[in-house]
């Protein structure tokens, strides 16, 4: 749970856990244990690289519903907006222009929200 919160942020994790019920709580536990406790904690790739891979996998599989959270995570993991743009440019060639176009739309919104000066 610690890594899940560090990567995705408390607000995202709190929403996911609050939405959990008897039907989905086992799934939330599985996601926490395997995704965040096994894969994201492995040696061999740093979090920045894992974020690049995750963005690409989400775009390639058309999972735009998870992309915003992982663009935020990529920023939290130290990727710059310019580096995120380069990941998305790479996906245009290997995943298709329509997928990259949708990803750019999502990423632009998130980056604008996350880099906007706070009052």
UniProtKB/TrEMBL annotation:
Pfam families: CMD. Signal peptide: none annotated. Its EC number is 4.1.1.44. Residues 26-108 form the Carboxymuconolactone decarboxylase-like domain. Gene3D superfamilies: AhpD-like (1.20.1290.10). The lineage of its organism: Bacteria, Bacillati, Actinomycetota, Actinomycetes, Kitasatosporales. It comes from the Bacteria. Keywords: Lyase. This is 4-carboxymuconolactone decarboxylase. GO terms for molecular function: 4-carboxymuconolactone decarboxylase activity. The keyword Lyase applies. SUPFAM superfamilies: AhpD-like.
């Amino acid at each position: 749970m610690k890594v899940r919160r560090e990567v995705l942020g408390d607000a995202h994790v709190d929403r996911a856990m609050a939405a959990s019920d008897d039907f989905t709580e086992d799934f939330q536990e599985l996601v926490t244990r395997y995704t965040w406790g096994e894969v994201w904690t492995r040696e061999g790739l740093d979090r920045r690289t894992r974020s690049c891979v995750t963005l690409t996998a989400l775009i390639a599989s058309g999972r735009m519903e998870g992309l915003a959270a992982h663009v935020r995570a990529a920023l939290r993991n130290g990727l710059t907006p310019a580096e995120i743009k380069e990941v998305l440019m790479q996906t245009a060639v290997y995943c298709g222009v329509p997928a990259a176009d949708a990803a750019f739309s999502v990423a632009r919104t998130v980056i604008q929200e996350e880099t906007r000066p706070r009052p």
